[in-house]
Amino acid sequence: MDGRTTARRPLAQVLVDSVVPPGGRDLAPLDGVSLELLAEAAQDHRVLPAVAKHVAARPDCPEAWRAPLRRARDEQVVRHLGVLAELSRLGQALDAADVPWVVGKGPTAAALWPAPDMREYYDLDLYVPRSAFRRAVGALEDGGCTGEDRNWPLMATSRRAEYAMRGPLGVHLDLHWDVAVPRGTRRTYRTDPDAMIGRRRALDLGGGRTAPTFDPVDTVLVLAFHAAQCGAGRLMWLVDVARAVEACGTARAGIGARARAMRVEVPVGLVLDRAARVLGDLGETGLRRGGALGAATAALDARHGFPDLPGDRHRAGRLYSSARPRAWGTVAALVRDAVADRRIERAIRRGVPGADEKALRHDVPDPAARADYFRFVDSGSG
Questions:
Q1: Which residues contact 74 (CB under 8 A, 6 or more apart)?
Q2: 372: exposed, middle or buried (C-beta count within 10 Å: 0-12, 13-18, 19+)?
Q3: Once rounded to an integer, what is the mean pLDDT over residues 50-67?
Q4: How far is CA 113 from CA 50, 192, 241, 245, 247, in A?
Q5: Which pLDDT score, from 0 to 100, does residue 214 have?
């Protein structure tokens, strides 16, 4: 990775300098950059600990910046250690219940970075087979976890492949039975989570701790697919993907074939292309080029630059989140998502209960709806 791309504003270049080894290139100057705006931009892209490490080590770092930058890194160290402690307890509970599981993103993505405290994260994502999901929930609840998604009528109707919980040590946990969370998304792609869990491997998380995670190619696909679904707008996600590709070694040439089998080649390819534009060439991955959609996202990056800064309006996120295997599907998703967003905005303005993005957190304890949701998961349909 070399961080070469179109010209960036100094603040944006400081962000990139913080996550890409500088090599022989000149670093962006800190003159004229305020600590407040730097911290805001870095936190927006979830790279504040990496920025803190990079900037504090520079001779031109203002002395008054050093204490708050050190604090930002220390806070991530504390979060990271807390997550590892929580993971140990939850893993033991799942193992005792004979539930196969893997960790995705979070600490396993941090392990790809030069130092795990460079990546900002706050929660855990655990993946279990759909057939073992009910058993996994029971094991975690017996182990001290509590549900954060409490709107059971909405869970029952939305059929999401994710259940948010809170661990006994207070860490947020998303328990997945598929990497494609919304029901409509699962109908579009063939993610085959059981096969992905079956290919799991042990990963060293540091400090003598290991955890099962996806194999190197699946790690790339999970990270890139998640980034696409979220609009590929954070520098952290691009670094995750670039380092995951690098960690594949010679296996990176097989990324394209597996992505095609899962029908995720378009969104994955768009994210890898953006990562290459921002961070440098990723090598041969076997992915086909992005066609008209890829050209559109590249043109937007060339015109507006990346990473975006607070206050920027042009993020192109919907082009990534709406990407589908075929062009007509992408167009339909773009229209459908735009209409859905307007409907939600109108409902929020009218004060409609449950219209906001935290609707799943509303406490609606409906035992029949909860039972219906678990019956649906157990059925293996949809």
A1: none
A2: middle
A3: 94
A4: 10, 27, 11, 12, 10
A5: 98
| Exposed/middle/buried for residue 249 (C-beta within 10 Å: 0-12, 13-18, 19+) | exposed
pLDDT digits (tens, 9 = 90+) for 115-144: 999 999 999 999 999 999 999 999 999 999
Q: Which residue has the tokens 């070469």?
A: 4
Residues near 382 by beta carbon (within 8 Å), at least 6 away in sequence = 159, 183, 186, 187, 376
Helix (H) or strand (E) holding 248: helix 235-248
pLDDT value at 351 more than 90: no
Q: Which of 281, 312, 277, 313 is closest to 295 using CA atoms?
A: 277
Q: Looking at residue 346, what is its pLDDT?
A: 61
Bridging pattern class, strands 123-127 and 172-176:
parallel
Question: Token match 């607070």: residue?
Answer: 310
Kindly report the number of other CB atoms within 10 A of residue 32's CB atom. Answer: 7
Name the band, by pLDDT with cuts 50, 70 and 90, for residue 5. Answer: very low
pLDDT of residue 257: 97
Token readout for 326 is 């075929």
- CA–CA gap between residue 204 and residue 198 (Å, rounded): 18
Return the bridge partners of 60, or none: none
Which residues lie closer than 8 Å to 62 by C-beta, 6 or more apart?
30, 35
**pLDDT, position 25:** 75
To 5 degrees, how large is the angle CA 105–CA 175–CA 338?
75
Q: What is the CA radius of gyration of the chain?
A: 21
Helix, strand and coil in the chain, % to nearest 5: 55, 10, 35
